[in-house]
Amino acid sequence: MLEPLRQGLPPLDPSAVSSAASCALAARYEAVREARQFTRRTLDQWDIGDRFDDVCLVVSELVTNALRHALPANTPRVPEQSPPVRLHLMRWTERLVCAVRDPSHDSPVARDSEDFSAESGRGLFLVDSFADGWGWHPLAGTLSGKVVWALFRLQGEPAQNNA
C-alpha cells in the first residue's frame, strides 16, 4: 500500500511506522463527521493535535469524495455490515499519512475550476493545498478498489531540497 508514497520522497520504511489507526465508515454522509472525530482523537493520542486543522480538512475532503464519487449510485446510505470506506492514519516520526480506501477503480480527478465560490468540485484542490503531497493507487490482491492518500510533514523534518 505504501509503494506510491515512496515515489519522489525520501524512503518511508513501513516497519518504522510508530503508530497506526483505522476506522470503517458507513455509506452515509454522517461518516464525514465520524472521520473528523476519529482523526481528532487519534492526533490527540499521538500528541500531534497541532496539525488537526489541516489534517481534518484533508480527511473531510477525501472521505467526502469517496462517499460522493466512489460508491455506486445504488449503495445504501445507511449503516451496513461491511462499510465500504475505510480511513487509515499512519504516523512516522516526522510524517503523517491519511489514506482513504474505497471500492471504486476510477482515478480521482482534480477539477480545474476557477470558481472559488463554488460549493463543490474543489476537494482535491484543497487536499493539494493543505497536504505536503497526495496521490492514489489501485488495490491489489483480495482487496478491490483504490486508496487515495495525503502526506503531512510533522515538526522537525527539513524541507526537501529539489535542487
- Note the overall shape: globular
Quote the average pLDDT: 79
Number of strands: 5
Helical residue percent? Answer: 25-40%
The poorly predicted ranges are: 1-11
Secondary structure layout:
Layout: E1 19-25, H1 30-45, H2 52-69, E2 85-91, E3 95-102, H3 123-130, E4 133-138, E5 146-153
Antiparallel strand pairs: 1-2, 2-3, 3-5, 4-5
Short description:
The chain has three helices and five strands, in the order βααββαββ. It is an alpha+beta fold.
Distinctive features:
163 residues, alpha+beta, 3 helices, 5 strands, disordered N terminus
Textual characterization of the structure:
Strand 2 (85-91) and strand 3 form a beta hairpin. This protein is 26% helix and 22% strand. It is globular and about 45 Å long. Helix 1 (30-45) runs antiparallel to helix 2 and helix 2 packs antiparallel against helix 3. The longest helix has 18 residues, at 52-69. The chain is built from 3 helices and 5 strands, in the order βααββαββ. By secondary structure, it is an alpha+beta fold. It has helices at residues 30-45, 52-69, 123-130; strands at 19-25, 85-91, 95-102, 133-138, 146-153. Strands 1-2-3-5-4 form a 5-stranded antiparallel beta sheet, with helices on one face.
